[in-house]
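A.,

Following up on our hallway conversation. Structure tokens first:
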């Protein structure tokens, strides 16, 4: 006998063994292909979900900004509507001759014929 125990082992080369090894190689290639496909699909899904998430986030930010702007504009509209009402009342009053006469007396110190205008000194609240 020889000193090397592996030298005595002979490899079986049968048709069954060849088919079995080919089948194992095919299964290994299929598994590698499956893993590659799943990896590619997974990466694509992550990219897709990130894109959708980014889009939703940007839309939410835009909506919030527009809501703030809408609130500010509604408040401004309310102020302008109140101003419009005040101006309409002023226009109605300016059509009244008595109101015009009152403004003329108060602002321009005009008098009716036969009236005497008395101007009182304004009292000062601060003492010097």
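Then the amino acids I'd put at each of the 128 positions:
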């Amino acid at each position: 006998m020889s000193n090397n125990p592996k030298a005595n082992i002979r490899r079986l080369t049968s048709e069954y063994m060849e088919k079995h090894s080919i089948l194992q190689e095919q299964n290994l290639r299929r598994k590698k292909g499956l893993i590659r496909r799943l990896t590619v699909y997974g990466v694509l899904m992550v990219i897709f979900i990130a894109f959708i998430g980014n889009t939703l986030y940007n839309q939410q930010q835009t909506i919030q900004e527009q809501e703030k702007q809408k609130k500010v504009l509604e408040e401004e509209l309310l102020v302008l509507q109140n101003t419009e009402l005040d101006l309409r009342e002023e226009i109605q009053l300016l059509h009244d001759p008595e109101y015009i006469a009152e403004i003329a007396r108060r602002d321009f110190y005009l008098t009716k014929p036969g009236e005497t205008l008395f101007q009182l000194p304004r009292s000062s609240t601060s003492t010097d």
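Residues 15-94 form the longest helix (80 residues). Curious whether your intuition agrees with the design.

B.
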